[in-house]
DNA sequence: CTCCACTATTCACTGAGGGAATAGTGGACG
DNA sequence: CGTCCACTATTCCCTCAGTGAATAGTGGAG
């Protein structure tokens, strides 16, 4: 995943230790996939093994021992390269929504797929309203706004897809049962 | 992931063995996340362990031994439940695109984020054109069309987000450097 | 008769992800 | 003044996801 690159990015503003990285992650990508503490340390371990970060000393500041890590030159290059590389747009699709609808159609129950689509559409609409409302929160920073935009755009895409698919399934149903 | 449920779905139309499941998967979800053979067998192993599928006999038909699996009653119930459950819409976002832009902004190089966004937008536009063209392929079945619709909707969402984010970043840049 | 393609499965390994355990410090509160 | 809780910080363990290589049998092309 891109979690390791995000950690590199967070380290680019100066050395940090694991706990600090976890907090910085939560702050920077508040609505992203949650990152467990355990994962932070195992990911840092891999980054260290690969020479992208290195220990910048141990200290203790009114608490347990902690190890501070910093980017190596290689780490900085790697981050730079990642940031400069364009992502291949949609090489493949990965969506529970899509999988569910396709499976529902496979199991030869089109009316069931239809009712599922309708329910899912209602849930999406509700969530979209919530998000649109919360977008006008004045305490939001640039990252929050960008994330909210992203989520809204994709929920909207889901909704448009749900509508056209609903129509398509209904058509299919009519054709097979005239 | 939902791979295990998709396998259950493929088994709902009758017993199949591993290799057959892999082919059925590729046929049903042609543009979905690729599923390696190894993964099919390990997933089936877990499904068997959990009592959702069971061995329906071994045979050999002009080839090596093969084990056929079928849904158990529990497996059918589990599939049914999954199909009937509405997915929580966007509980969190998981996108390399979003992560990259946020990290680019964090590393305090707004003009860099801007040029990245512009490049990514070009790549997305090209891919969207390709997909729109291939959608009119007359050999496509309902699954293919639904998948194509889905991909197009989300590429379009990415594009709209890229545009507004590009604007936002440009604004930000102007504000900080008047 | 050998080599290749296809069917079918297993194995070994790394990474992702989550939960519980451990351990130290400081403050609240009776 | 003790103890209980919250917070900081890390480690450990376990399962699932995902990939590539290895193995093994059959049928057909040449």
UniProtKB/TrEMBL annotation, chains A, B:
Pfam families: PadR, Vir_act_alpha_C. SUPFAM superfamilies: Winged helix' DNA-binding domain. Coiled coil: none annotated. Residues 104-168 form the Transcription regulator PadR C-terminal domain. It comes from the Bacteria. Residues 7-80 form the Transcription regulator PadR N-terminal domain. This is PadR family transcriptional regulator. It comes from Plantactinospora alkalitolerans. The lineage of its organism: Bacteria, Bacillati, Actinomycetota, Actinomycetes, Micromonosporales.
């Amino acid at each position: 995943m891109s979690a390791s690159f995000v950690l590199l990015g967070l380290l680019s503003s100066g050395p940090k230790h694991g706990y600090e990285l976890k907090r910085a992650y939560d702050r920077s990508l508040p609505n992203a996939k949650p990152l467990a503490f355990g994962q932070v340390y195992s990911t840092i371990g891999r980054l260290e093994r690969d020479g992208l970060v290195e220990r910048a000393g141990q200290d203790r500041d009114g608490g347990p021992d902690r190890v501070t890590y910093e980017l190596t030159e290689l780490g900085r290059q790697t981050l730079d390269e990642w940031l400069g590389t364009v992502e291949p747009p949609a090489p493949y699709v990965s969506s529970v929504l899509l999988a569910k609808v396709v499976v529902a159609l496979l199991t030869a129950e089109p009316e069931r797929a239809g009712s599922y689509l309708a329910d899912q559409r209602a849930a999406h609409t509700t969530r979209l309203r919530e998000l649109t409302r919360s977008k006008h929160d004045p305490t939001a920073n640039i990252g929050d706004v960008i994330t909210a935009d992203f989520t809204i755009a994709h929920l909207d895409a889901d909704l448009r897809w749900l509508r056209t698919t609903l129509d398509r399934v209904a058509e299919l149903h009519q054709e097979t049962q005239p």
